[in-house]
Design brief:
binds ligand LNRAV4D5; 37% helix; Rossmann fold; M1Pi_N; alpha/beta
Length: 392
């Protein structure tokens, strides 16, 4: 069975409730933009690409099932207001704002056409949002292939045989419309026969790694080991050579124009470790995550989440022998009264990033150490391009 974070058919949308994974696979119906806003805010659905797609499709479902005004302008205004509302659900990942911008443009263009009606504006929106779902999967498969090819060609480890990679957070089918970005690179290495082992970090405090990435790796029968975030340095120092670790590959929530990258908290420290241990540090992200309007990481808003996500852990009861899925408990793991800082993301400076893997190729810094990310938008569409291994 293929792992699906998002189930969509015209007029119907379901999301896999990721707060219940890995022990329960339950889907929630999403009937409206409001349903989507709360699902994104609560992180029942999460992951930069998935957030954008769920938001876009939720509005498509709402429009499909509602009694629509006949006047094109009224439907256009409704759509724009709902997109502005959806964008407020989570601030750091740019994909949602990027999708809203593109959907507004498609809506405004349809509303100005000769003979435009409420129905024609709705159809234009729904078709554009459905195309985003389709494009994301093909983009991720291209990211996987480009990333795997680059690792095989450009890492020392690959010269001796199949490589191992460490990844952080969840960037797989549960963070996208399918296949994944950084985890897609690991999937592609595995499919090529070039993966020795995948290591995934727990990713406190939300545990996307232990709950979601581990779930995907077990599901796909990819040889993998879970480590805590604090074990990453020891892993590279003590097992890097024996495991033939080639590098660390992560996703992104927003890549600034200079290559500074906002991603799950803990990413920055992994980039420092990669530099210290002489392994590659790679960011895997579709072009919808690259934000040329944000000049550098200093301009990226970092979402801070409730302290209870650090101090409380929720899950099914385990008595040390048996797992009781029928009893979900919340456990306090911190002293009452302690202050908590809980930034959901950090920013990794471009100088620590060896390559940014996109669906049209891997971007590397030039001889002056500068990323020119504008180049990736000069490639027509997301059509499969000859691998640009070695960088654009
Ligand atoms: C496909 S990259 C997804 C990106 O989003 C995650 O954040 P969250 O789980 O809070 O939505 C994480 O930063 C991943 O790298």
């Amino acid at each position: 069975m293929v792992l699906q974070a998002i189930k969509y058919s015209r007029g119907q949308l379901e999301i896999l409730d990721q707060l219940k994974l890995p022990h329960a696979e339950e889907y929630d119906d999403i009937y409206s933009s409001t349903d989507a806003w709360h699902a994104i805010k609560e992180m029942r659905t999460r992951g930069a690409p998935a957030i954008a797609i769920v938001a876009a499709l939720a509005l498509a479902v709402e429009l499909t099932n509602m009694k629509l005004p006949s006047i094109a302008e009224e439907v256009k205004v409704f759509i724009i207001e709902k997109l502005d509302y959806l964008v407020t659900s989570r601030p750091t990942a740019v994909n949602l704002a990027d999708a809203a911008r593109k959907l507004k443009k498609a809506t405004e263009e349809s509303a100005t056409r000769e003979g435009a009606t409420g129905d024609s504006v709705r159809e234009a929106y729904v078709s554009a949002s459905e195309q985003m779902l389709i494009d994301d999967v093909s983009d991720n498969e291209n990211i996987g292939r480009h990333g795997a090819d680059w690792i095989v060609k450009n890492t020392t480890a690959a010269k001796t045989g199949p490589v191992s990679m460490l990844t952080h957070c969840n960037t797989g089918s549960l963070a996208t419309a399918g296949y994944g970005t950084a985890l897609g690179v690991i999937r592609s290495l595995h499919a090529q026969g070039n993966l020795k082992h995948a290591f995934c970090s727990e990713t406190r405090p939300y545990n996307q790694g232990s709950r979601l990435t581990a779930f995907e790796l077990v599901h796909d029968r990819i040889p993998a080991t879970l480590v805590t975030d604090s074990m990453a340095a020891a892993l590279l120092r003590l097992r890097g050579p024996s495991e033939n670790i080639a590098g660390i590959v992560v996703g992104a929530d927003r890549v600034a124009a200079n290559g500074d990258t906002a991603n799950k908290i803990g990413t920055y420290s992994l980039a420092i470790l990669a530099k210290h241990h002489g392994v590659k540090f790679l960011v895997a992200a579709p072009r919808t995550t690259i934000d040329l309007d944000t000049k550098s990481g200093a301009d990226i808003v970092i979402e801070e989440r409730p302290g209870r996500e650090v101090t409380l852990v929720k899950g099914p009861r385990h008595d040390g022998v048996h797992l009781d899925l029928a009893v979900v408990e919340t456990v306090s793991i911190a002293a009452n009264g302690i202050g908590v800082w809980n930034p959901a993301f950090d920013v990794t400076p471009a100088e620590l990033i060896d390559g940014i893997i996109t669906e049209v190729g891997v971007v590397e810094k030039n001889s002056e150490g500068v990323f020119h990310l504008d180049k990736v938008f000069e490639v027509a569409g997301s059509t499969i391009k000859p691998s640009t291994v070695g960088g654009i």
